[in-house]
Write a structure and sequence with these properties.
- About 3% of the residues have low confidence.
- The protein is 48% helix and 12% strand.
- With 623 residues, it is α/β, with parallel strands linked by helices.
- The protein has a seven-stranded parallel β-sheet, sandwiched between helices.
- The protein has four domains: 204 residues, 3-Layer(aba) Sandwich (Rossmann fold), CATH 3.40.50; 200 residues, Rossmann fold; 107 residues, Arc Repressor Mutant, subunit A (Orthogonal Bundle); 70 residues, HRDC domain (DNA polymerase, domain 1, Orthogonal Bundle), CATH 1.10.150.
- It binds adenosine-5'-diphosphate (ADP) and zinc ion.
- Zinc ion (ZN) binds next to helix 16 and helix 17.
- Adenosine-5'-diphosphate binds next to helix 3.
């Protein structure tokens, strides 16, 4: 088997080496074992079921059913397999009755290698009856359950239809199942095992590290300008995703970017379905577009050359953040994950949890998850270290006893620290005294005004000039105080009560800080120290393009190859990367091939593609 797997890897996909645990997973699944595969986005999950599907079809086991939640993407996934010469198809509501009928006939003959379908389709009685027929004849080879975290309410893409997939195990006990996901926290994992009855399955947990992604979290200060600078300085002409929380903001930012000459499209659930689909198609098919989107965008987007993911608002937890940022750099080339966050993000996320109709237990879990993300945002140590240890990975420290990835903002530009203990105590005691004085709680703005001694209308109205801490924080800037507040909230030493106008309330942990028992070390805000430019300078090396090695003639060849690829992609109605990845085109341009045999060994050119496109590629290179 293993030699067959390697042969399939090379012949069909044009790759010479398996990545990480791929081979072990493939061996296990191919020989009929159940598996739960946890691998980061871009880790190469698809091959973990595609190669077993091919190997098992080859051995006479018949059809693999791939369960995938997104109908919109099946077309491209299947298109990529067809390009590679694999007999694949998808069954969904976009097919005409005739096409559907013809496909069912092919399915029942057991000849298709992979059939993609949505969970609701797989579990409908008519389809199950067809699977029965295949099963009875020994032609049902494998179930691959993609995006398996959708079965869990703890995941961020809960799909009730996934729950019905238990029928697979009950009804087709002898058919192996492989469930795959990029969501790895313990709660979700346990839920997947239980809901999908994978107790006996082998678990393959990869490192979740994405070493080519550079993490940067900056303080929010005129976010639109910050975003514009980030894109202009580092991502001119690149494809990227900008996540915003609200639909309105999505539209505003998309418009602003377009006005500023950066080609951008909006995507959110409130757009007409046709527009949404058209925008997604353009993003996948064209080079260098920026998609401005709510979280509605992205699951399963397998565009490999997204060079940056920017968050203008903070997501709700680390899982979501990691999944969203993971959409950058799937091709392994350098990419940026950039986020701007501020106090308002903290307040908004808290409020959404507090106001949700969920039960108190659920809310507490969600609060804990949000806190972990806040702690990441405020951290002064390696961001990657934080992320990986959140996912339970063991980190190997350096000689100084610290983990340092060397590819995040904190590693590249260690932030200056200042001792915020005193400022924190002043803030907390102001909150305490105001509460004592007026018998009610107030929000952050008013508390900061009192501390800084600002004689606002509200201060006069409530007589807060009389508070003993009035004006004792006059030397502290608002930026500093906001940072103190965020970090107190992030560390659980202060509560925000969303049910009462986002007022600030002390808790047990506040007391320790008040008494001076806890030291509060804070990161110096960039805005306060003018460190922004320094950070920017060193970060500009982040997304160095992979084609740096090309000379002028090579660049010309690459351009011709890209033009050729665009044409083929249009003809086939597929995204360009399905024809060849950028990395493959760059390798071709670099090699300057004269004969077909010169294309040997270039990663990404399988036998079918060599036959279909070899001559055209040579012609494009020499055009
Ligand atoms: P995931 O589903 O885990 O996010 P994919 O299966 O889409 O990742 O793979 C990510 C990219 O890596 C794809 O473009 C795929 O072609 C490529 N890839 C996967 N495995 C290999 C490999 N062994 N060698 C080279 N490229 C690979
Ligand atoms: Zn780091």
């Amino acid at each position: 088997m293993p030699t067959l797997h390697r042969k399939l890897l090379l012949d069909i996909f044009g790759y010479t080496e398996f990545r990480g645990p791929q081979e072990a997973i493939i061996n296990h699944v191919s020989s009929g074992g159940d598996a739960l595969v946890l691998m980061p986005t871009g880790g190469g999950k698809s091959l973990c079921y595609q190669i077993p599907a091919l190997a098992r079809q080859h051995a006479g086991y018949g059809v693999t059913i791939v369960i995938s939640p997104l109908i919109a993407l099946m077309h491209d996934q299947v298109g990529a397999l067809l390009e590679a010469g694999v007999d694949a198809a998808y069954l969904n509501s976009s097919l005409t009755a005739e096409a559907s009928y013809a496909l069912e006939k092919r399915l029942l003959s057991g000849s298709i290698t992979m059939l993609y379908a949505a969970p609701e389709r797989v579990t409908n009685p008519r389809f199950l009856a067809q699977l029965d027929s295949l099963y009875e004849r020994g032609l049902l080879s494998l179930f691959a359950i993609d995006e398996a975290h959708c079965v869990s309410q703890w995941g961020h893409d809960f799909r009730p239809e996934y729950r019905a997939l238990t029928v697979l195990h009950e009804r087709f006990a002898k058919v192996p199942r492989v469930a795959l996901t990029a969501t790895a926290d313990d709660l979700t994992r346990d839920d997947m095992i239980e809901r999908l009855q994978l107790q006996e399955a082998a678990q393959f947990v990869s490192s979740f590290d994405r070493p080519n992604i550079r993490y940067r979290l900056v303080e929010k200060k005129d976010p639109t300008q910050q975003l514009l600078r980030f894109i202009r300085n580092e991502h001119e002409g690149d494809a990227g995703i900008v996540y915003c929380q609200s639909r309105k903001k999505v539209e505003d930012i998309a418009q602003t970017l377009s006005d500023e000459g950066i080609p951008a499209l909006p995507y959110h659930a409130g757009l007409d379905a046709g527009v949404r689909q058209a925008n997604q198609d353009r993003f996948l098919r064209e080079d260098g577009l920026v998609m401005v989107a709510t979280i509605a965008f992205g699951m399963g987007i397998d565009k490999p050359d997204v060079r940056f993911v920017a968050h203008l608002d903070m997501p709700k937890n680390i899982e979501a953040y990691y999944q969203e940022t993971g959409r950058a750099g799937r091709d392994g080339a350098p990419a940026n994950a950039w986020m701007s966050y501020g106090l308002q993000d903290v307040v908004n996320q808290r409020r959404m949890i507090d106001e949700s109709p969920a039960g108190e237990d659920f809310k507490n879990v969600m609060r804990g998850k949000l806190d972990a993300l806040l702690a990441l945002a405020e951290s002064t140590d390696c961001r990657r270290g934080r992320l990986l240890s959140y996912f339970g990975e063991i980190l190997i420290p350096n000689a100084q006893g610290k983990y340092q990835c060397g590819n995040c903002d904190n590693c590249l530009n260690p932030p200056d620290l200042w001792d915020g203990t005193d400022a924190a105590r002043k803030l907390l005691s102001t909150i305490y005294r105001v509460q004592q004085h007026s018998g009610i709680s107030f929000g952050a703005g008013h508390i900061m005004d009192i501390l800084r001694g600002k004689k606002t209308e509200k201060v006069a109205q409530f007589g807060h000039e009389a508070i003993s801490t009035f004006g004792i924080g006059a030397t502290l800037s608002e930026t500093q105080l906001r940072s103190v507040l965020r970090q107190l909230i992030a560390n659980g030493a202060l509560n925000i009560n969303a049910a009462a106008f986002n007022t600030l309330q002390l808790n047990a942990a506040s007391r320790e800080v008040l008494k001076g028992e806890t030291q509060v070390m804070l990161r110096e805000s960039e805005a306060a120290t003018g460190r922004g430019s320094k950070a920017k300078r060193s970060a500009t090396t982040a997304a160095k393009t992979a084609n740096a090695a090309l000379d002028m003639a090579g660049e010309r060849r690459l351009k011709a190859l890209k033009a050729w690829r665009a044409e083929v992609a249009r003809e086939h109605n597929l995204p360009a990367y399905v024809i060849f990845h950028d990395a493959t085109l760059i390798a071709i341009a670099q090699r300057d091939p004269q004969h077909l045999s010169d294309l040997d060994g270039i990663s990404g050119i399988g036998a079918k593609k060599l036959m279909a496109y070899g001559d055209e590629v040579l012609r494009a290179v020499h055009s």
